[in-house]
Amino acid sequence: MSSADLKRDVFDQERRTAAGLGGVKIAPSGPLIGPHSDIRFSVLGPVRLYKSGREETAGQPRQCAVLASLLLRAGRPVSLSKLVEDVWGDEAPPSAIGSVRTYVYRLRRALGERSDSSLSLVDGGYLLRIPPDALDLNRFKERAARAREARGTGDLATAASLLTEGLDMWKGEALAGVPGPFADQQRRVLGELRLACAEEQLACEVERGRYAEAAAELSALHVEHPLRERVCGLLMTALYGAGRQSEALTIYHTTSHLLRQRLGVSPSEELRHVHERILSGRLRLPADTDRPVGGRHITSFRAPAQLPAALPELVGREEEREQVERLLAEAEASSSMAVCVVGGVAGVGKTAFATTVAHRLADRFPDGQLFADLQGAGPETEPRDPAGVLADFLQSLGVRPEAEPETTRARGVMFRDLLAKRRTLVVLDNARSADQLKHLLPGSPGSMALITSRMQLHAVVAAYQALPLTLLPLSQADARGLLARRLGASRTAAEPEAADRIVRLAGHLPLALANIAARAAYSPQMPLADVADEYAAAGRTSLDAFTSEDDHVLDVRASLARSYRLLDPEAASLFRALSVWPGSVFAMSDAASMAAQPEQRVRRTLARLIHAHLVSEIVPGRYHWNRLVAAYAAEQAGADRSTARAEAVSHDPPHDL
Fold it and tell me: What is the pLDDT of residue 550?
């Protein structure tokens, strides 16, 4: 069926639908306004639906595309033909009409009859009515508007605080993983809106004299957008205000070169003016009047010691430990802060490594060691709020609760002010994103931030010249050493072949090995060969043997599930599709074949699996994943097929949908 034929078919169906309703037009009611909507929607990141505070499934990617189209045209009916065009463009299949009807039917079921949001047929189109505050984009725009008003009256502190609140609503790229031309267009529009808001917020900070704090965030923004002249000008001003004149001039020359090389243009007059003023030392700077003085906020400074218990001895990882120690030595020599980001697949031992290394280095930080679990991949729906972490840190450092500022940013400034000229180690475990971290780093020379995350934190590495340290599964020798330490060297030496089988079955992952060792330790008379047989009997596609009934920390399936839940719908779909591959190494062409998609699209999606440390790229175009990760993918693929079958036989959508 051609595109023109499909559009005629859609038109005919819409006309028949209107006729079937007897020509009745359902008039839209007025906007439902209320501060406590029972249903909320999110488009500033993956498309999500929350009911009474709990996240509900928004459906498969194309259903999310339909929901996004309805949400972003709130208050206006969207025709069936427009929805088909939004989701498929000119490549709509003959089944597109029926699919959209099914998606709308499911969305109406998800909203429920007693919701303050509704989806109905109006003038031959679908109209989604929601309270304005039910959509995160509306709340973001409302704060941006209030910030403009505050800045217009000269209230920079309020403007910066409102803009920060708005930016904190973003959970990644807008409409992440949502397919279709409409979503692609809106991603660009919303991305520009977010960038403009970030520029405005940082401009407020520079005008307030927060030079050092603004420079760190502007540096990260400049790396992402090297041709944005306003970002460049703000960064130059912040660096100059922080006493880093040479770096400001370097930024100008780099940007000038890029503008000429890529666009064939010279820097704007405004940017040249900033450059000339810095060269002559005549750039006027706002007074730094909003910086708290640590002494008046505390009774007495306390050196905290918050590190959790470390392992008696960490097996292997000598090379990685040496890298962290070299990083600290280099930072000490250059009078800068050291930042290390520890990543790797779920169960590889990131937290154990970070806490053990932190204990080993603790005596080099006489002003204390702080620790926080940021719950970036924990069982909670949302990661931990940085404001709460900062409140805990400030109280640990001796700040009176009544002296704590209200906003996250102000707490971050006080935190860095208290640690200025002090040597402190801050361990931030289980981070979700760079945004979660930007206020939690100590900032002072001689201090160190040791971060663990299941995600690759490119912005942190770029902005702070951090060391990205990816932990790989243990070598055969180190994995056997871990097993010997847990079960006794004599027991593993008596059955070396069985010990090697256990190591392979566990995918060389410390978490899985600890799980097996814990069970085997309770059965000291059981031969290791029998232990290996028990785990092998579960087969490749089952993780039942690696579950823990009394501790989710030791549960391999639960650990992998927390990484899986961070994926956008498209990446999750590819993850499940890869499970049919029989080995642990596959090529790009293999992945494209399993996903039934073009290689270019699969390459972008694979990058997100790499970002989540679920897949690694060995060499360009060839990929590897751990056997236990593959087993979890197979489980999810089976669950997905079961859900699809159940939906197919449950209900047929009514004819008016």
Answer: 55
Superfamily of domain 295-470: P-loop containing nucleotide triphosphate hydrolases (3.40.50.300)
Residues 80, 372: Cα–Cα separation, whole Å = 49
| CA-based end-to-end distance of the chain | 22
Mention every residue, 6+ apart, whose C-beta is less than 8 A from residue 22: none
> SS3 for 133?
helix
How many Cα neighbours within 13 Å face the side chain of 518? 16
Using CA atoms, how far apart are residues 334 and 578, in angstroms rounded to an integer?
46
pLDDT digits (tens, 9 = 90+) for 600-655: 898 999 998 998 889 988 888 899 888 888 888 888 887 666 554 444 444 455 54
Tens digits of per-residue pLDDT, 378-400? 545 578 899 999 999 998 988 87
Q: How remote is the C-alpha of 302 from its chain's centroid?
A: 33
**CA-to-CA distance for 123 and 129, rounded, in angstroms?**
14
DSSP state of 522: T
Domain 557-650 falls in which CATH fold? Arc Repressor Mutant, subunit A (1.10.10)
CA atoms within 13 A on the CB side of 93: 5
Q: How many CA atoms lie within 13 A of 379 on its CB side?
A: 6
Torsion angle in degrees (nearest 10) through CA of 543, 548, 553, 557: 20
Topology annotation, domain 162-280: 1.25.40
Cα distance between residue 207 and residue 320, in whole Å: 42
The full 3-state SS of 322-356, as one line of letters, equals HHHHHHHHHHHHCCCCEEEEEECCCCCCHHHHHHH
Q: Give 552-574 pLDDT, tens digit per residue.
A: 556 777 778 888 888 888 988 99
Q: How far, in Å, CA of 147 to CA of 280, rounded?
A: 34
Cα–Cα dist 141/91, whole Å: 33
Q: Which residues are paired to 206 by β-bridges?
A: none
**For helices 496-505 and 476-487, angle between their N-to-C axes, nearest 10 degrees:** 110
CA–CA gap between residue 362 and residue 43 (Å, rounded): 43
Second-level CATH architecture of 3-136: Orthogonal Bundle (1.10)
Q: How many Å separate Cα 314 from the centre of its chain?
A: 29
Distances (CA, A) of 494 to 101, 488, 489: 65, 10, 9
Q: Give the C-alpha separation, 611 to 615, whole Å.
A: 8
Residues 6+ apart with CB under 8 A from 432: 374, 376, 377, 383, 453, 455, 566
Q: Does the pLDDT of residue 23 top 50, yes or no?
A: no
Helix (H, G, I), strand (E, B) or coil at 40: strand
Nearest in space to 163 (alpha carbons), one of 177, 137, 142: 142
pLDDT digits (tens, 9 = 90+) for 319-377: 999 999 999 999 888 888 999 999 988 888 899 999 999 999 998 998 899 999 998 87
